[in-house]
Amino acid sequence: MATTNIELDIENITGVTDANDQFIISAQKFVVSSVPKNLLHFAQKASSASTDGSAISFSVNDSITDVQRNGYSCKEISMSEAIWALDSTSLRYATAKHPVWYHKQGAVHFAPVTDGSNAGYVFYVDYSLIDDDSDLRNAVVYHATSSEFSKLASSKTDITVASTTLSNIGAPPVYTSPNVTGDGSELTDVDDLDTDNTIDVHADQIEFDQWWSTVTHLIEGEEDIELANATLQKISTYINAYGQSMQNRLNEFNDGNVEFQAKLQEAIQQAQIDAQKAQQQSQIDSGTAALYVAESKKYYDWAQLEISNYIKNNSKMIAMSMANQASGR
């Protein structure tokens, strides 16, 4: 039941580092299902005996070569006929020399039922015996090789083309307007006087939102043109300072934007290069996949040919077996 040489042949043909065990098992089962059972007696096994009327667990009917009760071959019947095979008053009642079997709930049942003097057995083809020492080993090699090439082809067709994701460009700069109030880090930051610098209650307040009203009051209410001019000068100074601060912020934004745009263009060019390489690789992989598909079909056909030749070379045995069955021997 060793498949060491089969695995080595598959690996040498396909180039895979480790032949898939399931592919080999599937190939062995494929061979068993394709070859007439009377040519596979060398791979036949017997189940444990049923000696107490119990059924024998067996779910794979297509590998059964014979079912016997006390040495007599049983004829297979449908489960619906079992009631008649077990009814002694029925014309279809099974006898010791003409036993039958039927499949029910994953097990082989006998009629008449088995007992200590009439043991029942299931004979079946063990697919694992189509191994390194079997004449059909090449059929297993070729079928498993076909599966390996199909897998390789699939791996080449399931291609994920590189995305155009841009990386390492950072975040774009954001323009931030100057603060009206703050901690004095900018020229336009205006805040309350410190406690030890307090002049009077009203001077503590920023009141920049009231400056225009204050000027109007000084001109129209107090008619104090000198103080109004001083207040206007204060407003003008603040506006100039604010404009200078805006320009500083704009300069910072422009510098950051130039750097960001340079990184963006570099990333776009790299993405285009990557996409072109991925497309070229995709074309190469598609061609490789087509070759694998062709190889898969070739080795599958070879597996079929191996089986066909095996059957042809043993045609006389098949004819003899059929003749024996026809004559009742």
Task: Describe the fold and architecture.
This protein has two domains: 1-35 and 136-329, no CATH class; 44-134, no CATH class. The chain is elongated and about 140 Å long. 50% of the residues lie in helices and 9% in strands. It has 329 residues and is an alpha+beta fold. The strands form two sheets. It has a four-stranded antiparallel beta sheet, with no helix packed on it. The chain has seven helices and eight strands.
What labels describe this entry?
alpha+beta, 329 residues, 7 helices, 4-stranded antiparallel β-sheet, elongated
Task: Report a brief summary of the structure.
This protein is 50% helix and 9% strand.
In terms of topology, how is this protein built?
Blueprint: H1 4-14, H2 21-34, E1 44-46, E2 56-57, E3 64-69, E4 72-73, E5 75-76, H3 82-85, E6 100-104, E7 107-111, E8 120-125, H4 137-157, H5 211-221, H6 225-313, H7 315-327
Parallel strand pairs: 5-6
Antiparallel strand pairs: 1-8, 2-7, 3-4, 3-8, 6-7
Helix pairs in contact: 1-4, 2-4, 4-6, 5-6
Percentage of β-strand residues: 5-15%
H/E series, N to C?
A: HHEEEEEHEEEHHHH
How many domain modules?
Answer: 2
State the total count of DSSP E strands. Answer: 8
Q: What class, by secondary structure content?
A: alpha+beta
What shape does the CA trace take?
A: elongated
User: How much helical structure, as a percent, in the residues?
Assistant: 40-55%
- Separation, N- and C-terminal Cα atoms: 32 Å
Number of helices: 7
Q: Oligomer, anyone?
A: single chain
* Main beta-sheet annotation: 4 strands, antiparallel
Strands ordered across the widest β-sheet: 1-8-3-4
Please state the CA-atom Rg, rounded to the nearest Å.
46 Å
